[in-house]
Amino acid sequence: MARKPKPMQSEPMPSKTAQPTTVPVTPVAAENPLAPPTTVGAAVTPPAQLSEAELAAKGLELFNDASLSGGNKASCATCHFSTGHTNNKTYVGLDVVADGDPNGRNTPTLWGVGERAVFGWAGQAATLEDSIRGIIVNRMKGAEPSKESLAALVAYVRTLNYPKNWQVKDDGTPSADASAAVKRGYDLYVGDGGCGTCHQLPSFDKKSKDDIGTGGKFKVPTLHAAASTAPYFHDGRTASLRDAVKLMWEFYAKKMESRLPTEAELDDLTAYVGAL
Ligand code: HEC
Ligand code: HEC
């Protein structure tokens, strides 16, 4: 991320807590008349020289700060539970809805989000900044975030990586001591299942969208950590990973007029995807 060498901008930002001009200045502002205006969730505006680590630390605070949302209803961590992962729920706005609701969106993990190029299930945001801004303003009904708050949140979520996995190497191939099922599953993944054409190794996503018959074009999501991101698909339509894998193979077989898997093959492919 490009860091601005110039001092902080000082034009007023729209804010729900902006004081009317008739209210006396707060003691903090009196002590430092040059302090830039603050916005909700950005009580302290970081100076321009913050290191990436300091910015990320600020971002972690904001990530747990419910004042980013209208009415202090939720923080990022409410839904991206467990260090930026997912609480496994499907939402419309801030309301939990039944998995499979066509308007619902299932909470994606933020692990590995720094490596993605398409954000939101429908790929509605081109950058991480746009994605987070849209979530604060539209989903959380919060005040317009300051540039500094956005930069801090982006820096924080970029630090969230996938856990290391002993069965699968960094290039996506099974390690020597992976289980036999995982090894067979990998062969199906890059072979007859056709999965690798969309969920490409080693990121297991694709930088674009596809229509797989789930109600429109959706981004090809990463399959890293899929074992713990249930429910599956944009609307959370399948509860088990095996059912998600089955739906995908059936889609691919229909599209390519190729064969369907046996039950044992579904088990193996699920073992491989579940090990990612
Ligand atoms: C009410 C639950 C909820 C809250 C609160 C929430 N998110 Fe999300 N987040 C979601 C859902 C659901 C999606 C998928 C949205 C979509 O596709 O339209 C999402 C998507 C994202 C994405 C895009 C990830 C991707 O791979 O496409 C990012 C980044 C993100 N959230 C970060 C944040 C940050 C940062 C905050 C706090 C400012 C936050 N979220 C607050 C539920 C939530
Ligand atoms: C034509 C491209 C394409 C192919 C081939 C494909 N997928 Fe997908 N996959 C997608 C898209 C697009 C989605 C998201 C659709 C949605 O959310 O409605 C998806 C979603 C998934 C999900 C749900 C992920 C989550 O986090 O919710 C799993 C699991 C999955 N695919 C596994 C597979 C497997 C296993 C194969 C091979 C049998 C495969 N896919 C083949 C495009 C593809």
From TrEMBL:
<dbReference type="GO" id="GO:0020037">
    <property type="term" value="F:heme binding"/>
</dbReference>
<dbReference type="InterPro" id="IPR036909">
    <property type="entry name" value="Cyt_c-like_dom_sf"/>
</dbReference>
<feature type="compositionally biased region" description="Low complexity">
    <location>
        <begin position="17"/>
        <end position="30"/>
    </location>
</feature>
<keyword id="KW-0408">Iron</keyword>
<dbReference type="GO" id="GO:0009055">
    <property type="term" value="F:electron transfer activity"/>
</dbReference>
<dbReference type="GO" id="GO:0046872">
    <property type="term" value="F:metal ion binding"/>
</dbReference>
<keyword id="KW-0349">Heme</keyword>
<protein>
    <submittedName>
        <fullName>Putative cytochrome c peroxidase</fullName>
    </submittedName>
</protein>
<keyword id="KW-0479">Metal-binding</keyword>
<keyword id="KW-0575">Peroxidase</keyword>
<dbReference type="InterPro" id="IPR009056">
    <property type="entry name" value="Cyt_c-like_dom"/>
</dbReference>
<keyword id="KW-0560">Oxidoreductase</keyword>
<dbReference type="GO" id="GO:0004130">
    <property type="term" value="F:cytochrome-c peroxidase activity"/>
</dbReference>
<dbReference type="GO" id="GO:0030313">
    <property type="term" value="C:cell envelope"/>
</dbReference>
<feature type="region of interest" description="Disordered">
    <location>
        <begin position="1"/>
        <end position="43"/>
    </location>
</feature>
<dbReference type="InterPro" id="IPR051395">
    <property type="entry name" value="Cytochrome_c_Peroxidase/MauG"/>
</dbReference>
<dbReference type="Pfam" id="PF03150">
    <property type="entry name" value="CCP_MauG"/>
</dbReference>
<feature type="domain" description="Cytochrome c">
    <location>
        <begin position="180"/>
        <end position="276"/>
    </location>
</feature>
<feature type="domain" description="Cytochrome c">
    <location>
        <begin position="54"/>
        <end position="161"/>
    </location>
</feature>
<dbReference type="InterPro" id="IPR004852">
    <property type="entry name" value="Di-haem_cyt_c_peroxidsae"/>
</dbReference>
